[in-house]
Amino acid sequence: MSEKSENFTSLNAADFVMGDPLAKFLVIRRKWSPLQVGLLAYLWAISSSLVIALIGGTLQRGTGYVALVEDYLYLISETALIPTLWGYYTWMIAAPVRVFSELAESKVYMPTAEEIGATRKILGRRWQTPVSLFLAVIIGVVYFMQHQVMSVPFWFATNPILLGIRTALVIVPTGFITWSSVFRYIANTRLFRHSLSDVHIHPLHPDRAGGLRPLGRYALSTTYIIALGGSVVALAEYYAWTHGTFSTAYYYHVALILYFILAPANFFAPLSSAHNAMQRAKDDLILRISRQFNQDFSKAYSELEGSAEELKDHIEKIEQLQRLHSMTNSFPVWPFDIDTIRRFVLTMTSPVFTVAVAVIINVLTNMLTQ
Are 294 and 258 in contact (CB under 8 A)? Predict the structure, then answer.
C-alpha cells in the first residue's frame, strides 16, 4: 500500500464517536457489538412493558383496556424496531471505517493526513446530542398527551403515572436514538461527499462498480432500517383499516408517503458524490478519445489524395478509437452492480409483502376460528 493510503490507519472507530458521548460509551468503553446493544435495548423495553402491564393489571384480556397480549402492533413494532434501531445506530459508527478501509485496500481511495483531519472536523461537532435529546423529549410529551385523550385505552395508560413511566423509559430513549441515527447518517453522508469527490476509478474492477461496491453495500444496508420502519407503518395502516380508524390515521398516511420518498433518497444520497466522480472520470476519458479522434480523422481526410498506406494506418487507428470509445462508454457511473439494485428494490417493496402476510394470517385465523 502506498504512503498515502498508510495514513488511513490513523482513522478508526474512535474518530467516529467524536462529539457523541453515548456512542463513545457503547463502542469505545464497553466495546459492545450492534447485536449486543440491540439485545440489551430490547430486554430493557420488554421488561419495563411487562412490569407496567403487571402493575396496571392489563397483561391479560378482559380488563376494559387493550391488553398487552392483544396489542399486536406493539408486539411486532417494538420487538423488531427497538433492537434494530439501537443496533443500527451502533453499526453506523463502524461502517464507514470498513468502507474506507476496503476502498483504501483496493487503491480506490487513498486519503492524505489533511483529508483525515477534515474528517475529524466533520465528526467532532457536538450539537447533535442535545438536539436529539430535545426532539426526543418533544416526542415523549406528544406521546403522553395523545394517549391521555385516546378513546381506546391501552395497557400502559391505566393511569398517568404508568403512562409517564413508559414514556420516560421507552419512548424518549427510542426517540433519542432515532434522531441520533438520523444525524449520524447525515454526518456519514457528508463525510462520503467530502472524501469521495476525487476517487480513483477502476472501470474493469471485478466488483462491476468501479471498485466502489463497498459504498454501494453501505447504502443498501442503510435502507434496511427504513424498510423496517415502512413495514411497521404499513402494518399500522392495516391495523387502522381493520379497526375502522383508517380515515383518521393521518400520521400513518403521512409516514407511508414519506417512506416512499425517503427510502430512495436514503439509498442514493451517500452514492451521489461517488457517482459524480465516476461520471467525471468517464467524461474526461471520452473527451480525450474524442479529441484524438478529431485529430486522426483530419489527418485521414488529408490523405485522401495521398498515400494509400498512410490512409490505411489512419483508418485503422480511427477504428481502434471507436472501439475504445464504445468500451469507455460502457464504464459504470454508479457504485453498485445489478445485484445491489435488485436487493434495494426488494427491500423498498418489503412493506407491501408485510401487509400481504398480515392479510393472509388474518384470513387463516378467521377461517380456523369459525
Answer: no
Phi/psi at 173 (nearest 5 deg)?
A: -60, -40
Cβ atoms of residues 325 and 294 within 8 Å? no
Whether the CA torsion 177, 214, 101, 277 is positive or negative: it is negative
- Per-residue model confidence (pLDDT) at position 2: 40
Residue 114 makes CB contacts below 8 A (sequence gap 6+) with none
Other beta carbons within 10 angstroms of residue 153's beta carbon come to: 16
Q: Would you say 199 and 277 are in contact if contact means Cβ atoms under 8 Å apart? A: yes
Question: What's phi and psi for 256, nearest 5 deg?
Answer: -70, -40
Q: The pTM is what?
A: 0.75
The string of DSSP codes covering 269-292 is GGGHHHHHHHHHHHHHHHHHHHHH
**Helix, strand or coil, per DSSP, at residue 239:** helix
Average pLDDT over the chain reads 79
Please tell me the distance from the alpha carbon of residue 219 to that of residue 267, in angstroms, as a whole number.
5
How far from the centroid of its chain's Cα atoms is residue 264's Cα? 10
Neighbours of 109 (CB within 10 A): 27
Contact 27, 89 (CB under 8 A): no
Q: What is the pLDDT of residues 224-276, one digit of tens each?
A: 888 887 887 887 777 777 766 666 666 677 888 888 888 888 888 888 878 88
Least confident interval from 165-179, 184-198, 356-370: 356-370
Q: Under the phi-then-psi rule, with left for phi > 0, alpha for psi from -120 to 50, and beta for the rest, what region is 31?
A: left
CA-based angle 229:122:197, to the nearest 5? 85
Q: Which of 111, 134, 96, 83 is nearest to 4 (CA)?
A: 111
- Distance between CA 270 and CA 128 in Å, rounded? 19
Q: How far is CA 33 from CA 77, 97, 173, 198, in A?
A: 22, 15, 19, 32
For residue 69, what is its C-alpha cell?
Answer: 397480549
Residue appearing with cell numbers 489533511: 114
Asked if residues 128 and 20 have their Cβ atoms less than 8 Å apart, the reply is yes
| Contact yes or no for 85/44 (Cβ under 8 A) | no
Question: 66-70, long-range: CB within 8 Å, 24+ apart, which pairs?
Answer: 66/152, 66/153, 66/154, 66/155, 67/155, 68/155
